[in-house]
Design a protein that fits this description.
single chain; alpha+beta; six-stranded antiparallel β-sheet; three-stranded antiparallel β-sheet; 4 helices; 9 strands; about 30% helix
């Protein structure tokens, strides 16, 4: 018997092991059928059935393209009108606040500039006074301690150069004054405090810190009248004697910053004004 077509183990091994397949050898993926004689049956039966033309056409007619999933429509964001309104209100408030701050800054800057100009003008005036006092008295004034001052040690202030005396009210003490006879219009300016106030004395009484800053008496020739060439008044006329008029001049301002001391200084200024009235001025020889 011819065994050339008999199944061999090598073939079966190739069939069972696809990695052993070689070119020219039967495809191990194809199932071979053998007859009783050991020969392979002609024709290869494929595992995939073939449809008849009629079946194919019918299947094609019934075939439908698969429905592709349609992309989801993009959702338009919904904006709440109430949220927009609130946002607009908030932004409006911030805008108004910013504008208000800007205006306040401009006003504050203008006020600061005005105060600075006033301070400069006041300093210029005081420097001019110091320069004039130094020139007329011949005393070099570099600090407040250099200003020539006098202390009242009795119940009167005697001004022999002027020919008058000033009586000091009993309610007033710690009197100090600056006398300048070399000015065109000689003046005497005062410091003091009411008798009830003792140590520590308020700063406004210190002639070093507040030199003659609580009221002055000015001596003017009667021929000049009551106003200067600039038309300004010499002050409140309080006394006349021997061809001269005497005028009271109020302080330029309050020296104190503390509220309690402001009240004390205001009262002391009023007492000094009373001291420089006609009732307390008299001729002295």
């Amino acid at each position: 018997m011819d065994n050339s077509f008999a199944p061999n183990n090598q073939y079966n091994q190739n069939q069972n092991n696809p990695q052993n397949s070689q070119p020219g050898q039967p495809n191990p993926q194809i199932n071979m059928t053998f007859g009783p004689d050991g020969r392979p049956v002609t024709g290869v039966q494929l595992e995939t059935p073939i449809l008849s033309p009629t079946q194919t056409a019918e299947n094609l007619r019934n075939y439908r393209q698969p429905q592709l999933a349609q992309p989801a429509a993009a959702k338009t964001p919904v904006v709440n009108s109430t949220s927009l309104t609130l946002l607009s209100i908030v932004l409006g408030i911030f805008a108004i606040a910013g504008l208000a701050l800007g205006i306040f800054g401009l006003i504050d800057s203008a006020a600061t500039n005005t105060k600075l100009e006033e301070t400069r003008a006041e300093l210029t005036t005081k420097n001019a006074i110091v320069e004039e006092v130094s020139k007329q008295t011949g005393v070099q004034i570099k600090t407040a301690k250099d200003v020539p001052t006098f202390k009242a040690t009795t119940g009167y202030i005697y001004l022999s150069e002027w020919g008058i005396k000033i009586q000091i009210p009993s309610e007033l003490h710690q009197i100090s004054y600056i006398l300048n006879n070399r000015l065109y219009h000689p003046t005497i300016c005062f410091n003091g405090v009411e008798t009830a106030i003792t140590n520590p004395l308020p700063a406004f009484t210190d002639v070093v810190q507040n030199p003659g800053g609580m009221g002055c008496l000015v001596r003017v020739s009667a021929e000049e009248g009551e106003r200067g060439t600039d038309g300004l008044s010499f002050g409140e006329k309080v006394y006349s004697d021997n061809g001269y008029n005497y005028f009271y001049q109020t302080p330029n301002g309050i020296f104190s910053k503390d509220n309690s001391e402001i009240q004390l200084e205001t009262h002391a200024v009023a007492l000094i004004k009373t001291m420089l009235s006609s009732e307390n001025l008299s001729t002295y020889k």
